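dumping this here before i forget
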Amino acid sequence: MATAKEKELEGVDCDAAALEGVRAVLRARLAHMCDLRAAALEWEDIEGVHQMRVASRRLRSALRDFDDLLGKGAVPQRRLKEVADALGDVRDQDVALAALEKVRKKAGQGGAEGVGLLIGEREEVRARARERLEAVIAEAPLAELREKFLQRLERVGTVGRQKKGDKRKRVTKKVVSFRQAGRKVVESRLTELREFSNSLHHPFDVEPLHEMRIAAKRLRYVLELFAQCWGGRLTSCSREVAELQTSLGELRDCDLWIEDLGARLDRHREESEGQDADSLIRLAAIWLLNHFTKERTKHFRGALARWHKWETGGFFERMLEVLGEERSGAAEVETVAAEPTPAASNTPTD
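structure:
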């Protein structure tokens, strides 16, 4: 059975005009995200929210990658962001709760009790986030989003009919193939990632490392998307990038914990002293701060070692060599010089 990622390119001709493949990919990604709605609302299994969130990220990432082909404001994105944000709010608490449950037994008698109190706080936050998610991805609004998205997608790239008496000439122009568009996007995402490499020389500068993680994720997505256009030869590259993304992702989680715990300890010192519950939370926060500081170092070292291996082992050169093996030739299409289509310019952004 084909996976969701494999289904994205079912029936796509990598040598055909890029816009045909882009439409097919976006339809598949939208359908996959919407099909995960029921799973996301099954609270007993937190993987449903995770899967739908990843699907929404892949869809929005593809829209960003194909922005030049689609045109600004071509398809609605405001509601997609709302869905992604609601899924992210729930997922963030799922991840935090799983992390707290994992370390609770290691925290010792006093620390474990305080971690339990922190778990209770997070569960309340998650309950509110779940209520919002239920509203955002209810059947009616999600169906409306899907219908509007598909309608606007079909209008992208259409050319108005030539009016009677219109003397503007038909012109023949070359358009890039789906494979050629893919090469451009992969090279752009690779360049973006490499531009953040200096952040690994500054381990305590948090935000550039966070941006590098996002760049790695975007590169991984396009490598997975276009792998079939190069006979799967980009698949091993995408796996390597996924490993870097994982290290940087774990590093980011540690940074968020460290920031949150530090702020909590600051507030505790200013607001309350001597209360049993507060003392237990303070003890747990100190233990957790120590734990996540150690974990952060481990994940940073993993990311740094992998990048060094790439730079000294010719990883980037191999990837670019594969990309250079694309078939030559571009499709020729006949079109009419005309005013911009509504999808490309006059339609308001959703």
